[in-house]
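TASK: fixed-backbone design
INPUT:
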């Protein structure tokens, strides 16, 4: 039998989709859905860049450079935002799939399907965060969906704030989806799968927090 990648069904009917994926001999739509996910990532990054979301630190240099140089800096920053967004989305699709492929007996193409689902969740979070960033000036660490706000009340450590900011209802959803799909498509023990999923997601959160922290320090 063949499996047609459908993101909505995969997200909201995971049990059915996972069992169909497990039995599938052919998978259709991976590259179509990958292109769609990347296109959405590009659009969201473009919207953020257009409204200047995330480039607040550049305003400190407005009086140190000419108007033309400042506009060039904003343009380069916007391009960087778009490229980074595309790279992060690509990594969310293929990196966890690679890790899970190493430690399980699941075909890599099936794991990429799971990666597409979790990347879609990440983009949903970005889309829902844009209005908060635009109208309330919140950064990603201050997202109302994550623990970053709580962290800011209990610590001044920027890295810890960034790390807890990455732990949101959406990232938990992604992690749960990773676990459920692996559980329903492999014979590995549940404890082993849970360890693999937790380790992979923790690595992603730490790397993302470290990257944000370093970028924060350099730019400020």
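OUTPUT:
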């Amino acid at each position: 039998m063949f499996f047609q990648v459908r993101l909505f069904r995969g997200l909201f009917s995971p049990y059915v989709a996972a069992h169909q994926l497990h039995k599938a001999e052919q998978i259709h739509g991976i590259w179509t859905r990958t292109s769609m996910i990347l296109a959405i990532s590009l659009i969201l990054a473009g919207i953020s860049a257009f409204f200047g979301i995330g480039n607040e630190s550049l305003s400190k240099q407005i009086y140190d450079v000419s108007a033309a140089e400042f506009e060039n800096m904003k343009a380069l920053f916007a391009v960087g935002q778009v490229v980074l967004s595309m790279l992060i989305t690509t990594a969310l699709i293929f990196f966890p799939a690679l890790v899970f492929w190493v430690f399980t007996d699941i075909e890599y193409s099936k794991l990429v399907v799971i990666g597409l689902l979790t990347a879609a969740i990440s983009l949903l979070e970005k889309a829902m965060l844009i209005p908060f960033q635009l109208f309330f000036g919140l950064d990603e660490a201050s997202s109302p969906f994550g623990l970053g706000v709580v962290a800011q009340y209990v610590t001044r450590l920027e890295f810890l704030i960034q790390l807890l900011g990455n732990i949101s209802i959406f990232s938990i959803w992604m992690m749960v989806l990773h676990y459920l799909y692996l559980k329903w498509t492999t014979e590995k023990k549940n404890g082993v799968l849970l360890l693999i999923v937790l380790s992979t997601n923790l690595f992603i959160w730490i790397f993302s927090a470290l990257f944000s922290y370093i970028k924060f320090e350099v730019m400020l």
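COMMENT: The first strand starts at residue 2 and ends at 4.
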